[in-house]
Amino acid sequence: MNLANRITLVRIFLVPIMTFFLLIKLDVSPLTIGDYSISYNQVFALLLFIIAASTDGLDGYIARKHKIVTNLGKLLDPLADKLLVAAVLISLVEMGKLDAWVAIVIISREWAVTGLRQVALLEGAVLAASKWGKWKTAIQIAMIIVLLLNNFPFIYVHFPLDTIAVWAAAAITVYSGVDYFIKNKNLIPLSDPPAGEGKKGRPGA
């Protein structure tokens, strides 16, 4: 396994550790700056999330620079992103920082695209992430960071960046999902093949 794929695996292994810090309650006073406060476990989780999210660009850069892009990497990379984002979204819902419908929309889109990738794999093709998919990931990461920071420092000027980020992430998630399915609609069978006819019309294939 090459270096890029190992970095992707590290991102996956960080997910349960980060989730643990998000959901536990440390019996210590929160970090306080004036009227602003944030729990230490939330700070630890945020740092782990930033580290994990930053490896997304790193593994891709290494794979392209050293020309070690593999089918395994193309599958692992988006899977790691989905696990990371889904774990944080569910945790944020549990913490009361995110409406459940937003998490449902985002996670549903992610696994729908994963299903399409599996269909492509059965057809002998591997679908790489699209441009809109990469923008979607970036905005989702930004939204999560803002929510984990409790809208700091925008809370001091009463600017609802957290709310704006949530709506932006939901909108681009839906758009990128629709765009992905439209561009790969040829992989979606509209009808069952004739009885006795296998793949590509070859009997018994």
Structure description:
- The protein is an all-alpha fold.
- The chain has 6 helices and 2 strands.
- Strands 1-2 form a two-stranded antiparallel sheet.
- A hairpin with a 2-residue loop joins strand 1 (31-33) and strand 2.
- Helix 3 (71-94) packs antiparallel against helix 4 (100-122), helix 4 runs parallel beside helix 6 and helix 5 packs antiparallel against helix 6 (161-183).
- It is globular.
- Mean pLDDT is 83; it is low at 199-205.
Give me a quick take on this structure.
This protein has helices at 3-23, 40-65, 71-94, 100-122, 131-148, 161-183, and strands at residues 31-33, 36-38. With 205 residues, the protein is an all-alpha fold.
Order of helices and strands: HEEHHHHH
Please state the CA-atom Rg, rounded to the nearest Å: 20 Å
Low-confidence stretches: 199-205
Question: What is the end-to-end distance?
Answer: 32 Å
**Global structural class:** mainly alpha
How would you write the strand order of the largest sheet?
Answer: 1-2
Largest sheet: 2 strands, antiparallel
The coarse overall form would be globular
Query: What is the mean predicted local confidence, pLDDT?
Result: 83
Number of helices: 6
Strand tally, please? 2
User: Percent of residues in beta strands?
Assistant: under 5%
Could you estimate the helical fraction of the residues in percent? 55-70%
